[in-house]
Write a structure and sequence with these properties.
single chain; alpha+beta; Alpha-Beta Plaits; nine-stranded mixed β-sheet; four-stranded mixed β-sheet; 24 helices
Length: 734
């Protein structure tokens, strides 16, 4: 391994639109790259700037190699280099001792994906402690004296955790109006049971009225009839859907109901879902029962009752008690009414509280002010307690008990609803986070690898793909000085290349691999449907396409023609970019002299993911190395290809000119070819042996308002572009 280290200034960031990758640029980055390329295997090659920042006595350094001394860039900036032979002795000894027992300086047991039994037990203890703390914080009652005392003591301290005690008011309404509105607007599935209870209470009041009166006025009969009919209609509408389900739907879930039934279903569902309608019905039915109680009291003539009571005591005859109401049955049914009014579900708790207070106070006032003689002469529950006080005590006990019980239930419902909303918010945030992660991963990794990465690679398993025929391209923007202005220009150029790539990626599976400095790397043929070997099972969505194309090895060679067409479009895009750049008014007098050098090779390639914390999809193989060498030894504004690639291109009708023997590191002198390109950046076409499979793969032209043309049939040997663009002005926006 060769390592080069240099210290200095640089620019860091992300450029382009796809395959986002954090990168660094600058002169000092280039110098560090030169230090690596001119270094010695097995040693660290550093510059004099880096050496000045080190504690020199702790390191043993020697002069740099001859290649570094003679390198023009290092000579230009007067960079002296050194080879680090050894570091601090203590660190060296500790590393040597660790290497005897481990594969790396960092212990393998300290890696986050390998847990020991003790670590699992410690994590379990932490989880239990956090769970215990959460249970301790759980509110169990709307009243908490200890919490109030602690809040009073910590009044001046900052509290980051808002308890539910502080989220609701005394009437158990959320301080957050939106949360309270959402709580009250929930569907009331218990409505039919509440209405049934109200109707039963009304029937009991009607029985008391009929049993304890000698005669009833006509108006009272009309009121009773209206009240009972209204309650019956509410009960019928509420229970009609349930009854229909018992009769028909339970046996036949697909039973089709008539219009009348559907109309009643609609009314009931509207009542369930509307808070205003439910509150109106609640006030109506509670008031109706109070009206029936008022009729019972109105039918009692107090003067006749007092006279009859005195005569019965003077003349000692038996009192049958049919002239007025019976106090205890009426008190009992009023207690049921109060309990019913406070337990009516999905009604604001403050409204129910006010209704119960009004009912209780009204009945107590009637006991002590208007019908005191009637209640005083009734049976008492305690010999030492007057009867009217016994009635009042019963009403108060029922009202207070029902209120406290319902307050506890309401508080529990508020707690559950608050936690439910909090959980929904967390789930929504988690969903958004997951979607963002997936979007980012799709912008970093190929789409077919994302699912595998999230599942299999989370366990740090190796993932790789083997392809028999892939075309690889390296395109380097030359003559770029890495300052801030040129970095902005580089970002715009790479963005234009990425926009162009979107069309090729959709229809030709051209994949951007990475951008290193000013070098743009892409490949065509990395379709999982064409992969020969895959380490993990992947959903191959294009099996039908593969079956139609995978007839022979030659059919896969079309990727060479596609990638070369993309390279030509990149050159055309760069030329338009430079033209547009020159035409900008604010930049007149300035010129963009950047050129592009492209190298293409093809052959067998291995693809996979490297890294764990910052995964990167990359490719390896002889085709990748040769494409890099074709670029590095290429000519500006030319596409240099290997001999094998040139043969394939000529079979597709693309003229390739022999350049000669070019020295390639690791291979010696090999023949290379230059794709013949006109001044208008079009291919020079010759007689083709094969045609691109337009029927099997859509073309880039389908994105534009014109159709693809048959190259050899229409133009013969004339110079044309694979993707002619008649309206170039539409594609020059930067």
């Amino acid at each position: 391994m060769r390592i080069g280290v240099h210290s200095g200034n640089l620019f860091a960031g992300v450029i382009g639109q796809t395959k986002l990758q954090y990168d660094v640029w600058g002169l000092d980055v280039t110098i560090a790259n030169v230090l690596e390329s001119t270094g010695v295997p097995g040693f660290v090659h550093i510059s004099n700037v880096t050496l000045s920042n080190l504690d020199s006595p702790e390191y043993v350094v020697i002069a740099g190699p001859e290649k570094a001394v003679n390198h023009p860039l290092l000579q230009k900036y007067k960079i002296k280099t050194y080879i680090v032979e050894s570091g601090p002795s203590s660190r060296e000894s500790s590393i040597s001792n660790d290497l005897n027992n481990a594969l790396s300086v960092i212990s393998i047991n300290s890696r986050p994906f390998l847990h020991t039994k003790n670590e699992d037990e410690s994590l379990q203890a932490v989880f239990n402690a956090e769970l215990h703390e959460e249970f301790r914080k759980m509110p169990v009652s709307p009243y908490n004296i200890k919490e109030f005392y602690n809040n009073h003591r910590k009044k001046g301290q900052k509290n980051t955790h808002t308890k539910l005690y502080n989220q609701v008011t005394f009437f158990l309404t959320f301080r957050d109006l939106d949360l309270e509105k959402a709580y009250l607007s929930r569907t009331d599935f218990m409505f039919k049971y509440n209405i049934l209870l109200v109707w039963i209470v009304g029937l009991c009041l009607l029985m008391i009225q009929l049993a304890d009166t000698n005669g009833v006025c006509a108006i009272c009969i009309c009121l009773d009839f209206f009240v009972m009919l209204s309650m019956f209609l509410f009960t019928f509408i509420s229970w009609y859907k349930k009854i229909c389900w018992w009769r028909k739907g339970k046996r036949n879930p697909r039973y089709i109901y008539d219009r009348f039934s559907c109309f009643l279903f609609y009314i009931y569902e509207s009542i369930q879902g509307s808070l205003l309608i439910r509150v109106f019905i609640y006030l109506f039915v509670t008031s109706s029962n109070c009206v029936v109680v008022g009729i019972i009291l109105f039918n009692c003539d107090r003067n006749d009752f007092i006279l009859h009571k005195i005569e019965s005591k003077l003349f000692h005859y038996e009192d049958f008690g049919t002239m007025c109401f019976q106090p205890w049955p009426l008190t009992n049914i009023c207690a049921v009414m109060i309990s019913m009014a406070i337990t009516f579900t999905r009604i604001p708790f403050m409204v129910r509280t006010l209704v119960v207070i009004a009912q209780t106070l009204t009945y107590i006032l009637l006991i002590f002010l208007y019908y005191s003689y009637n209640y005083h002469n009734s049976v008492s529950s305690n010999p030492s307690l007057s009867a009217e006080y016994a009635h009042c005590l019963l009403i108060l006990i029922v009202a207070v008990t029902s209120y406290l019980k319902e307050r506890q239930i309401e508080f529990a419902n508020k707690v559950n609803f608050s936690w439910q909303k909090e959980l929904e918010n967390k789930e929504r945030d988690a969903h958004l986070t997951n979607q963002s992660i997936i979007i980012l991963l799709n912008n970093i990794l190929p789409s077919h690898v994302v699912e595998v990465y999230l599942n299999s690679l989370a366990k740090h398993e190796l993932y790789y793909e083997n392809y028999q025929m892939v075309s690889v391209m390296f395109a380097m923007l030359m003559n770029f000085q890495m300052d801030l202005e040129n970095l902005r220009i580089l970002n715009e150029i790479i963005t234009e290349f990425d926009i162009l790539l979107l069309y090729y990626k959709e229809y030709f599976v051209v994949e951007k691999i990475k951008v290193v400095g000013c070098t743009y790397m892409a490949a065509c043929g990395l379709d999982v449907s064409f992969a020969g070997t895959i380490s993990n099972p992947v959903n191959r969505n294009s099996e039908g396409l593969r079956a139609s194309i995978d007839k022979s090895q030659k059919d896969l060679e079309e990727v060479v023609f596609v990638l070369t067409s993309y390279a030509l479009d990149m050159m055309r895009t760069l030329e338009r970019f430079k033209t547009t750049y020159k035409s900008l008014a604010v930049l007149r007098g300035q010129s963009l002299g950047g050129t592009i050098s492209i190298g293409i090779s093809s052959g067998e390639v291995m693809a996979g993911i490297v890294g764990a914390s910052q995964p990167h999809y990359d490719i390896w193989g002889d085709a990748v190395n040769m494409a890099s060498r074709m670029q590095s030894t290429g000519i500006a504004d030319k596409i240099q290809v290997t001999e094998e690639t040139a043969i394939i291109l000529e079979e597709f009708g693309v003229q390739c000119n022999y350049r000669g023997l070019v020295y390639v590191k690791g291979r010696g002198e090999i023949p290379t070819y230059l794709v013949d390109i006109s001044k208008e950046y079009d291919f020079t076409v010759k007689q083709s042996v094969r045609k691109p499979s337009y029927e099997q793969r859509s073309t880039i032209l389908s994105y534009f308002p014109y159709e693809a043309i048959d190259i050899t049939k229409e133009l013969g040997d004339r110079q044309i572009s694979f993707s002619a663009m008649p309206n170039q002005n539409d594609h020059t926006n930067i």
